[in-house]
Specification:
- This protein folds into two domains: 15-171, no CATH class; 174-240.
- The protein is 64% helix and 9% strand.
- The chain contains six helices and five strands; from the N terminus they run H-E-E-E-E-E-H-H-H-H-H.
- The chain is rod-shaped and about 115 Å long.
């Protein structure tokens, strides 16, 4: 999909303005002619759509504004209201997030919203330079600045929420790792405690003829294995602390 410059049929722009236009609408700006102005604004951007729909507002040499729908400039207010609705919808979604996918959807749209509003404010400022006493344009510029701040705050809050989720997930992962480490440590202590007994049991359980005096020392050997295991247990626990 390519952007094409399509001007409303009832626009009769002067040659000085037409010479500054190309075959594409371009960025948001105020094109200044000899006695006329052409204000170029963009429709609310959509996520993952790089193309922008341009809206043209023409100020004739007699000072009257003409918009795509006819005389006046109130369609700028409608455009800003659409920006406000999208920002409000994303703010509500941010307050009741349920998944990282919703958060990513907000981040993917908040950036283009803030950037488009920033450029729209710049275009309205350019129009005010030419028409400083135009109160209607000034009101729309101030409203666009408010929406620009709201979009930037939305983007910042979404990023902070993402960072908080990452920190929270890392903290939970650390707690789980610590719990698993403690469990494995206790299992190793139990294994170390019975290791001497297992070794002695394996040694004396072999099919070999043992001397008679060894058979009478069974309980002493058993107690010795427990003592060695206890010493290992005490040493490893002390190193752990």
């Amino acid at each position: 999909m390519e952007e094409k410059l399509i001007l409303p049929e009832h626009y009769e722009l002067e040659r000085e303005i037409l010479e500054q236009l190309s075959d594409r609408p371009g960025h948001q700006r105020c094109v200044v002619g000899h006695d006329e102005l052409l204000l170029v604004l963009h429709e609310v951007p959509k996520a993952r759509v790089p193309e922008r729909e341009a809206l043209f507002f023409w100020r004739r040499m007699d000072g009257r504004w003409i918009q795509p729908g006819g005389p006046g400039l109130d369609e700028v207010g409608g455009l800003l209201e659409r920006y406000a609705n999208v920002i409000d919808a994303n703010e509500e979604l941010l307050e009741k997030l349920e998944s990282a996918q919703d958060l990513f959807r907000i981040l993917r749209q908040a950036g283009p919203l803030a950037r488009s509003l920033r450029n729209g404010v710049a275009a309205l400022d350019q129009a005010l330079v030419q028409e400083y006493e135009d109160k209607e344009v000034r009101n729309y510029r101030d409203r666009a600045q408010e929406l620009e701040r709201a979009a930037e705050l939305l983007q910042v809050e979404a990023r902070e929420t993402m960072l908080f989720w990452q920190a929270e997930a890392a903290e939970e992962h650390k707690k789980s790792s610590d719990r698993l480490g403690n469990i494995l440590f206790k299992l190793n202590l139990v294994t170390g405690f019975f290791l001497p007994l297992v070794a002695l049991g394996g040694l004396f359980g072999m099919n070999v003829n043992l001397p008679d005096f060894v058979r009478g020392l069974f309980w002493w050997i058993f107690l010795g294995g427990l003592m060695v295991g206890g010493m290992l247990l005490w040493y490893v626990a002390r190193e752990r602390k």
